[in-house]
Design brief:
Structural class: mainly beta
Number of helices: 0
Radius of gyration: 15 Å
CATH topology: Jelly Rolls
CATH class: Mainly Beta
Order of helices and strands: EEEEEEEEEEEE
Mean pLDDT: 94
Shape: globular
Oligomer: single chain
CATH architecture: Sandwich
Number of strands: 12
Distance between the termini: 13 Å
Strand content: over 45%
Helix content: under 10%
Number of domains: 1
């Protein structure tokens, strides 16, 4: 069974602090499956500015983050219904509280960017009403102009 596929993105955001790059809350009547995510930056291009940032995918937070903005996911198929849950980006106060479990950890070289594509057996499944974050663990050494995307599927509803 296949559901509706959506993408949510942000573009050219000045990132100076540790934050939830994306926070996804599944609808009460549907599960959400994260298919892939990716990040790139366009401000640090020299060897002296090279750094690797840790990105974690976490689930189980019961309190939403803040300080970012709401993102309207775009259906990947023309005419599909709007996403039933919510997505936020760049929350500088991270989602917290609850039984938090880390599902993935990747290092992003700021010059190369990061693209994480999950094979079906490794996809991150967000249960109905559950929250999931893709978190930048630590602040970058200096301000980065960051862009990002997350692609996910809503199943059920």
């Amino acid at each position: 069974m296949h559901g509706r596929v959506y993408s949510a993105a942000f573009s050219k955001v000045a990132v100076t602090a540790a934050q939830d790059l994306f926070e996804i809350v599944a609808p009460a009547d549907s599960a959400v499956i994260i298919k892939r995510f990716g990040f790139s930056q366009s401000s640090d291009v020299g060897d002296a500015q090279d750094e690797v940032l840790n990105i974690l995918v976490k689930k189980g937070q019961t309190v939403s983050g803040s300080g970012g903005s709401s993102v309207t996911p775009v259906p990947r198929s023309l005419g599909d219904a709007a996403f039933g849950g919510t997505v936020e980006a760049n929350n500088t106060t991270k989602a917290n509280t609850g039984t938090i479990v880390t599902h993935d950890s990747v290092g992003m070289n700021v010059r190369a960017g990061e693209k994480q594509v999950y094979i079906p057996e490794e996809e991150i499944i967000i249960s109905p009403s559950e929250r999931c974050t893709i978190e930048l663990v630590d602040a970058p050494a200096d301000s980065l102009t960051l862009s990002g995307v997350v692609v996910f599927e809503e199943v059920g509803g």
